[in-house]
Design goal:
Elements: H1 12-62, H2 74-106, H3 115-135
Length: 137
C-alpha cells in the first residue's frame, strides 16, 4: 500500500447512515422521474387534444359539405384530452409534493429539484390552451 492513500475504516453505524442517505436520494430521484413521466404523458394528451381540435376546425371550414351529426364533436374530444392532460399533471404535482414532504420529514437534506417548476409551467400552458379552445369556438 502506498503512503499517499489512507483508507478510513468505517464502523457499521457509519456505513448504515451512509446507505440510508443514499437510499433517500435514490427515492427522491425516483419521485422526480415519476413527475417527469406525468409531464410527458400530460404533454402528449394536451398536444394531441389541441391538434385534433385545430385540424378538424380547419377541415370544417374548408369543406362546405361537412356535416356534424355525431354525439361528440372533434372539438369536444380535443377539449376532453386537454382537460385530461391538465388534470393528470395537476394530480401528478400533488402526489409529488406530498411524497417530497414526507421524504423531507425523514431526511431534511434532500435537495430541491427544478422538475416541479417545469411541471407548473406546462400546467399553466395547458390551462391557457384549454381556455383558448373553449372560448374560441
Amino acid at each position: 500500500m502506498s503512503e499517499g492513500t489512507k483508507t478510513e475504516v468505517k464502523d457499521a453505524n457509519q456505513l448504515a447512515d451512509e446507505r440510508t442517505k443514499l437510499a433517500y436520494e435514490r427515492t427522491a430521484l425516483a419521485n422526480d422521474r415519476t413527475l417527469m413521466a406525468w409531464v410527458r404523458t400530460s404533454t402528449s394528451l394536451i398536444s394531441f387534444g389541441f391538434t385534433i381540435y385545430k385540424f378538424f376546425q380547419e377541415y370544417k371550414q374548408s369543406d362546405p359539405v361537412y356535416k356534424q351529426h355525431v354525439l361528440f364533436t372533434t372539438r369536444d374530444v380535443g377539449m376532453v384530452l386537454i382537460a385530461f392532460g391538465f388534470l393528470g399533471l395537476f394530480f401528478g404535482l400533488i402526489q409529488y409534493r406530498s411524497d417530497m414532504n414526507r421524504f423531507r420529514l425523514s431526511n431534511d437534506k434532500i435537495k430541491y429539484s427544478f422538475t416541479p417548476i417545469l411541471a407548473i409551467l406546462i400546467l399553466i400552458l395547458s390551462l391557457l390552451l384549454f381556455f383558448l379552445a373553449l372560448f374560441r369556438q
